[in-house]
Amino acid sequence: MGSREMQAALRRGVRMAVLTMLFVGPGSAAAQAQPPLVSALLEARDFRLRVQAAFAMGDSQDPAYRAPLERALRDDAPAVRAAAATALGRLGDRRALPALLALQSDSSAAVRLQAERSVARLAALPPREKGIKKKSAKPH
């Protein structure tokens, strides 16, 4: 594993450790009603926890996180909006394009840049073919 890969793995581990520590104790009713990452992204008081939650969601590549990340694009903290824009690009779900394109007029240059990068990343994805199933690798 190269130095760059090790640093990325370490960052992911730190993110998950921070979020795990946040939710070790008894949570609020809202936190129990939705996944911990979503609660952290939408409810944590510290913007740094919201940023880490956004990155963890993007790293998961779980399309179920698209809607909460799109909500986070309206966060008061520019760092959270930028992290949510980055995470949406990592998810690889083209349905996020309209929300990302809306950030072209964001007051933060960092948010605009991350949104632009995510739009480019999503636009570069190969188109999905509907109705075509992958062939099984199993012999018949």
Account of the protein in words:
The protein is mainly alpha-helical and 140 residues long. Helix content is 63%, strand content 0%. It contains 8 helices and no strands. Helix 1 (3-22) packs across helix 4, helix 4 packs parallel to helix 6 and helix 5 packs antiparallel against helix 6 (78-91). The longest helix has 20 residues, at 3-22. The N and C termini lie far apart (38 Å). The model is unreliable at 24-32 and 130-137 (pLDDT under 50).
Ranges where pLDDT stays below 50 over 5 or more residues in a row are 24-32, 130-137
Structural class assignment: mainly alpha
- pLDDT averaged residue by residue: 81
What gyration radius follows from the Cα positions, in whole Å?
17 Å
**Main beta sheet:** none
**In angstroms, what separates the terminal alpha carbons?**
38 Å
Quaternary status: single chain
Annotation field: number of helices: 8
Percent of residues in helices comes to: 55-70%
Number-wise, the strands total: 0
Strand content: under 5%
Shape type: globular
Order of helices and strands: HHHHHHHH
Summarize the structure.
By secondary structure, this protein is mainly alpha-helical.
Provide key terms for this protein:
globular; 8 helices
Q: What is the topological layout?
A:
Layout: H1 3-22, H2 29-33, H3 36-43, H4 47-60, H5 66-72, H6 78-91, H7 97-101, H8 109-123
Helix pairs in contact: 1-4, 3-4, 4-6, 5-6, 6-8
